[in-house]
Amino acid sequence: xxxxxxxxxxxxxxxxxxxxxxxxxxxxxxxxxxxxxxxxxxxxxxxxxxxxxxxxxxxxxxxxxxxxxxxxxxxxxxxxxxxxxxxxxxxxxxxxxxxxxxxxxxxxxxxxxxxxxxxxxxxxxxxxxxxxxxxxxxxxxxxxxxxxxxxxxxxxxxxxxxxxxxxxxxxxxxxxxxxxxxxxxxxxxxxxxxxxxxxxxxxxxxxxxxxxxxxxxxxxxxxxxxxxxxxxxxxxxxxxxxxxxxxxxxxxxxxxxxxxxxxxxxxxxxxxxxxxxxxxxxxxxxxxxxxxxxxxxxxxxxxxxxxxxxxxxxxxxxxxxxxxxxxxxxxxxxxxxxxxxxxxxxxxxxxxxxxxxxxxxxxxxxxxxxxxxxxxxxxxxxxxxxxxxxxxxxxxxxxxxxxxxxxxxxxxxxxx
Length: 416
Known about the structure:
alpha/beta; TIM Barrel; Seminal Fluid Protein  PDC-109 (Domain B); 11-stranded mixed sheet; 3-stranded antiparallel sheet; 11 helices; about 30% helix; about 20% strand; disordered N terminus
């Protein structure tokens, strides 16, 4: 019996696709390495919804994020080999589209990770490896994004119909291998992350009719691809079960770790965990209230990620990181839960470069004592929580830092 149809928030992209076909690109095989630097071995890079009209540089600055994953690149119509941002032919891969924003982020010591695919593209045949039937133009498209924006990681979001398209899977991996060889010859640091749906115990295996994420990885290995990061979408399970979303993240990632161990038996446990990424959906996901990722879940996942040494933490998506729509699920612009603006980001931001444990009773490297829910604080007291230092404005007890808002009891003094 086929499994439930997934309906992520990414479906808004479908309305943005245009009908114009475009010519493919030729692989250059040449070029000079630029100033791109490899991403850190531990990275927090929330997804930025590029179809909203927001400025990535402005939101990165407001939220405190150094890194963003930019979603999404796809072709304007099935059969094309030319990607555009949001599948919009008016938004080409060029300095004129997001170039100045990306320059600003990079000048501040951060970077962006352009992401190809997404649910709407994967569902509608405009994911580039599904749309284009020639490997070379696919590789050339990846190279053009890398050189145009001087980035060092590309994300490949592979869901829905793209997981069932064996020819597309093979073309995509052959193109990735070509780009990896080009980058090595050009002395350019380039990584690829594969973003895939998951069950609570590891990658989808196709038995529910939803395609096999594991087959994507097996095909990559058979094509000689170096798997840098496998990023699990730990939300939208659609299994009609109650969920502890933090616990389910841990079991899903453990399942992926074990699947990677079978593919790479010579790798150490630490090396395998450093190939793992997880993307959380803040608050109520597309399925509804039984799948709610809370601010407490975020603190738990953060400490688990630090302990395991996973490679990447992410959120779908940055624009959801606020509490402006209590009780609403699956929104592109709010989490549906009680939270302060950017609370999930602030919890995960210290992960860049390695991170320290932040949840009570530990305090990581923060000099202030860790916040305790049963303690009494008076005006002027400082605590550490979520990788930040907080100062009490008046007497308080039991009020979690980051949940009281701009005018509440806790003043955010910044990261520590």
